[in-house]
Each structure stands twice: as structure tokens, then as C-alpha cells.
Amino acid sequence: MTKARLSILLSLTAALVLVACGQKEQGAIPPSSNDGKNNKELLLEGDSTIYGLACEGCTDSVIVLLPSDGSDPVSYNIIEAFKKRRVLGKPKVGDWLGLVLNKEEKGVADLVVDLDELKGTWCYVVMPKLRDQEHLTPKMKARIEQEMTDSMRETYMIPREYGFALKRHWTAQSIGYIQEKNSLEDESPVVYPKLLYYTEWHIWNGKLVMTSGDFKMDKENNVSVTNMRLDTCDIVYLRDDSLVLGSEGVTRSYYRLTSESEINKKAKEMAIKQAKKALEDTK
Known about the structure:
single chain; alpha+beta; 8-stranded antiparallel beta sheet; 6-stranded mixed beta sheet; 8 helices; elongated; disordered N terminus
């Protein structure tokens, strides 16, 4: 093994200890472009959503909203929205809400989103797939997976949690990064789905808009994000610890992460174990 490869593997082991589940060392994530801006400045162009705080008097048929401009509270009829399950979340006094108003009937809201309930960390579980199987039929892929040894499954078929954290001031963060972008990952027989690197979130006419890009980290752990993109999703369901998003007829369910994940702990531990084994093989 060359000194150059040994150096790469040593750097890998150090990086793996520092990075997991999207949590970087302090200073590794660049400051948000939203810093110092008020909510009005951060709204997307063309967004007609009405924002404010839920007041006393909210029921299944009425939302009493204190507008974000500080004007007097306004009551909105939500009877039809409630029947059509377009009241997303369970508004409580003091919650930050977003309302989409009916274009024909004054004082009627077609959709209500509890934005405070929407904030938080949302995840789903992914599994890796065997590498370079694009040319195989589904039957052949299934046969290969069945023939994997127990030790291979234990080493490589490790689930991971992917997702995002929606934070204050419309900032977002990806969940699920296990730092292993190097020659060791290239040698792995499995590959995980691509994880988008989220930076911001917004509401646009009642829909959730996520800003993401391609994540890069140099040898000094400096982060850059390129090829920025906006993805717009319908909020199909939101209640307690469940979230369902939909786009172009496809839906995905998320669960709220309220404590440190055991799933990504195991993925991180296995990545470190693989790096140590690679180092031992060089001796």
C-alpha cells in the first residue's frame, strides 16, 4: 500500500469520527443567507399565503389569526377546509400559522398549515443497494441479494435515516450524512441513494418549497453547496409525529425525530469499523 493511500485512509478515519447524521463541527456549515432578514423579506415572490399567530377562539370551524403585520385579529371560516382535511396540524394558541384564502369568498380559508408543528426533524429509512446492477433483471437482482452471506449483510446492508430539519428563519439542514466520500466508499459493494443537501425551506401558496444543492467538503472541512434547486411539494398530511409530502402523484411518509437516532449511530459505527479494517490491511 502506498504512503499516499495510507494518508487518505488516516484522514478518512478522522473525518468519520467528526461527521454523522448531518451534524458537522461548529463552523463547518456556512452561515445561512437568511441571517439578518425579517420574515417579510424572506417570502417567495408570488406567495399569497397569509401568516400570523393563532389566537384564543380557534376551533374546528374558525381560525382567529393575529396577522404578522401587527393589525387586529381576523376570524376565518375553515369549515370546508376541515372537512377536506386541509387543516394541516392542530393549531394551538400562539402557534405560527399560514393560511391560503378562498379567492371567491371573503373571510374563508381553503387551507391552514401549522408552521410551528411543521418545524422539526423529519426522517425516513433507506437501505443500500448492490452496486452496478443496472443491467440486471429484477429476478437476477433478487437472487444475488439472497445469496449474500450473513457477514456481508451485517457489514454492508445497514439502514440509514434520511431527511431534513426545518428550523427558524426558513433555514433547513439535511439529516443522514455519513462522511465517506473517498476511495474506500468506491470499493464498497453497495451504494446508498443520493442525499440532497438542504439549506432553506419556504411556504408558497400553501405548498412546501425546499432549497437544496450538491454538497462538497474539502480537506479542511470547508463546505460548499453548488447546483442549487427548488423542489415544491404538497403537504398531504401533518399531525403530531407524522408528515406526508406529495409531488407529481408520488408521496413519501416521514416520522418526527425527537431524540438522537440509533439507526445512524449504527451506520456511523460501521463506517468507522470499515475504515479501521482498511487501515489494518495496509500493515
